[in-house]
Write a structure and sequence with these properties.
The structure is a homodimer. By secondary structure, the first copy, chain A, is of the alpha/beta class. Chain A has helices spanning about 15-30, 60-65, 80-90, 115-120, 135-150, 165-175, 195-205, 240-250, 260-265, 295-310, and strands spanning about 10, 35-40, 45-50, 50-55, 55-60, 70-75, 95, 125-130, 150-160, 215, 225-235, 255, 270-280, 280-290.
């Protein structure tokens, strides 16, 4: 397909696992004015762009600001985002940042298009892309909140190696089966993992429910691609599993599946949701989602497309 | 070590993954009067027994009843247990059954020695060994119940391939990393997995809290040995994470660990518990346990040792 408008897009962090997926999805969606940027050590590297390729350019505030761009999609660490994004934004480029650098910054929209797309239009040059687990979680919680009012959420995650980048994927590929283990390999403040704090705070911001009790245990599992979550949902008003199932079936971006798993979700755009049932006064469900697609690259591209459709970009 | 009394023990299902572990642990604990039994197709097979070996004998009601035994430890499917156990019990052999055949039968004790060892003495020839996830869960819940009263439990499991037997382990060993996936591979009644029902009902029976709300989501992860559980606990009275940590540290069979994982727990007798914290009015923790040891073979041997220590066996 060819886009009616073909914006000029920079993919920053093009040699990473999310950057590579961003390039692949942009190519598949018909974008052509796409350039690849990365750090100094990747300059000149050739990366795939659909059937085509791109030569990696050096990502600096100056090169990006001078790049005559409409959008820059960042999938770099949050420290690098903090260095690059404000300068690029100041040059008039709309920045979609996938790091955690700006997600909780007041005034910066944190957007899942199906959940709070309207917020994206209020951007002042930066839109933050949420954490890979917060995207599917808020997608599932939003319609249930509208149907019956959220009172509390417990979530246990099953997160894949690709969430930790290419090196972790390679490491996992080389493990002997006896070495497979779970991990809780995020920064730890002595009580909670940073990933658990992100999941709570970002989900609250996306849903605009700043006091919602959300309690998370985040776990890395020896799966390459695809995150899953076991979720318990307390609601203010009664909602049967049957009605919840219908509500979710009618929600854009959600696909019902009896037993969602990372491998079934992997390679798909949808958030797979199943095991919807009531138990002890709560609604339970299990979800799986391709963390590189809807959990990262796809969501960022959908933000670009939403801004273009609503003409919420600088002229 | 040499046992003061050396009971005559049959290991039934000796060629399975739990049977092999039972033989290994019995040998390591100094038992010598141990025989190996299995189905017709394994007759004559040589199995390890510590540095020694055993020749597999045919497990039938007749061979076991005529075997001049004190104990028979069954790790066979529940249908085979139903065929063999009552006849062997009628011959005066105390049967420790690791299948689900008798676990919820009224009058048959379902025992975790550290949790409800007293119940074992009330046996009438059969003691049931609980499900591999119910053993560590009830071990953790019991002291917390005594400290502050349980009001409700939510648990998400991370269960290893060895829980599904040797063939599943072999299958997992041969998977390419790209094929690794989560699974929910238990019998399904349309609402709940059989494993989830077992976990609820068995934990209630062990704790003698027959109305306790327990809500479980059971998931198989691509790990070979070791089950883990993310647990949310609602208590009737306030209990800080610090006090909970001290209570658990003082509980026999439990070992505190900052980040328990299956691989750390694998090869160990203890139940590893960590991530103990409070959130949104609940206590959270994460546990890992060797499902072949404390989750199965070790617990069954501990039942034998408890009955011997209390002379609760036929003279």
């Amino acid at each position: 397909m060819t886009r009616p408008v073909d914006p000029r897009i920079a993919v920053v962090g093009a040699t990473g696992v999310v950057g590579a997926m961003t390039l692949a999805l942009l190519a598949a969606r018909g974008y052509r004015n796409v350039r690849a940027f990365a750090s100094y050590r990747s300059i000149g590297q050739i990366v795939s762009f659909g059937g085509d390729t791109r030569v990696v350019e050096h990502a600096t505030p100056e090169t990006l600001a001078a790049g005559d761009l409409d959008f820059a999609l960042f999938s770099v660490g949050s420290r690098v985002s903090q260095e690059l994004v404000p300068a690029v934004r100041d040059a008039g480029v709309v920045c979609i940042d996938k790091s955690s650098a700006f997600r909780l910054e007041p005034g910066i929209p944190l957007v899942v298009p199906e959940v709070n797309g309207d917020r994206a239009e209020q951007h002042e040059g930066i839109v933050a892309n949420p954490n890979c687990c917060a995207i599917p979680l808020s997608s599932v919680l939003k319609p249930l909140h509208e149907a019956a009012g959220l009172a509390g959420v417990q979530v246990a995650t099953y997160q894949s190696a690709s969430g930790a980048g290419m090196r972790r994927m390679e490491w996992m590929r080389n493990l002997r089966p006896e070495e497979h283990d779970l991990a809780m390999d995020w920064t730890f403040d002595g009580v909670e993992l940073e990933e658990e704090t992100k999941l709570r705070e970002e989900t609250r911001k996306i849903l605009e429910l700043h006091e919602l009790p959300i309690s998370a245990t985040c776990v890395r599992v020896p799966v390459l691609i695809g995150h899953a979550e076991a979720v318990w949902i307390e609601l203010e008003r009664p909602l049967s599993a049957d009605v919840a199932r219908r509500v979710l079936a009618d929600t854009p971006g959600i696909q019902l599946e009896e037993f969602p798993t990372p491998r079934k979700a992997s390679g798909n755009d949808g958030i797979f949701v199943g095991r919807i049932r009531e138990d002890a006064g709560r609604l339970l469900l299990f979800l799986a989602c391709d963390n590189l697609r809807k959990g990262a690259a796809l969501n960022a591209i959908q933000i670009v497309e939403l801004l273009m459709a609503r003409r919420a970009i600088p002229a």
